[in-house]
Amino acid sequence: MLAPSFILLFALTLYPLIFAVRNAFFYWNLQTSPTPQMFVGLDNFKNAFTFTPFMASLRNTLLIAFIGIIIEITIGMFIALALSAKMPYLTFVRALLIMPTTIAPIIVGFMFRYMYWDVTGLIPWIAKTLHIPEPGAGYLGSTGTALPAILLADIWQWTPFFAIVLYAAIVSVDSEMIEAARVDGAGGIRVVWSIILPTIKPVMVVIVLLQFMKLFNIFDLVYVLTRGGPGDSTMTLSYSLFQQGLVNFNIGVAAAMTIMIVAILNILVFIYTKFVMKGAKLS
């Protein structure tokens, strides 16, 4: 029974990784040859830093991941607490919240692309109504606003996911413990800080980790909204990898970048889990 599972695991995970490791040390451009051409050692790794915007991509990816998670979990927590306070039309609100997460990210990208449209877009119209100056090249064409524009689209789609998951965790907290704290004189903030947050911490750890890995590989929104521009201001690791592998057909450099991205992601996840485990031991 385990054999099909191992075959599927190998086909979907191990083989692509082995393929990338092997080709990371070979010069291979699909425009000139259907097979690897010659062994080049570490040159592909050097070229990834020299001839691609790797560091800019890493910086933008980390900015999107960290800022996105902080905003999404903060707003999501406030929404979850509001939902747990027995607000009216709760069933309708929960159904409304789940809708953005059911939309494909590329569709969300097109939605926001039209919303940022200079002439008829909703966001420029709101900015003009509030007398907020619009960037000369538009929100997606200016280096100072293009990355926040991508972040806003992701926050719109995934904050409700945090809210729904955190709400489910909050309603599972022992109500007797909360009532006992209130009888002892604890206010709402104290109850949240001392009882609710420590209780739902394992859920928060998991959803933060999942969302970090998703944002670290963000591609759809970048592809639809900015194509990594203007300049390299919104270039991410996944989009840079796409350009090398499927636009320039430079398979060797793309494979080297894949290895580096996997290594960086695993290091960050390891640091995060160690930090969480250390915090759990201290508590």
From TrEMBL:
<keyword id="KW-0472">Membrane</keyword>
<feature type="transmembrane region" description="Helical">
    <location>
        <begin position="62"/>
        <end position="83"/>
    </location>
</feature>
<dbReference type="GO" id="GO:0055085">
    <property type="term" value="P:transmembrane transport"/>
</dbReference>
<keyword id="KW-1133">Transmembrane helix</keyword>
<feature type="domain" description="ABC transmembrane type-1">
    <location>
        <begin position="58"/>
        <end position="272"/>
    </location>
</feature>
<keyword id="KW-0813">Transport</keyword>
<dbReference type="Pfam" id="PF00528">
    <property type="entry name" value="BPD_transp_1"/>
</dbReference>
<keyword id="KW-0812">Transmembrane</keyword>
<feature type="transmembrane region" description="Helical">
    <location>
        <begin position="155"/>
        <end position="173"/>
    </location>
</feature>
<dbReference type="InterPro" id="IPR035906">
    <property type="entry name" value="MetI-like_sf"/>
</dbReference>
<protein>
    <submittedName>
        <fullName>Unannotated protein</fullName>
    </submittedName>
</protein>
<dbReference type="GO" id="GO:0005886">
    <property type="term" value="C:plasma membrane"/>
</dbReference>
<keyword id="KW-1003">Cell membrane</keyword>
<dbReference type="InterPro" id="IPR000515">
    <property type="entry name" value="MetI-like"/>
</dbReference>
<feature type="transmembrane region" description="Helical">
    <location>
        <begin position="95"/>
        <end position="116"/>
    </location>
</feature>
<feature type="transmembrane region" description="Helical">
    <location>
        <begin position="246"/>
        <end position="272"/>
    </location>
</feature>
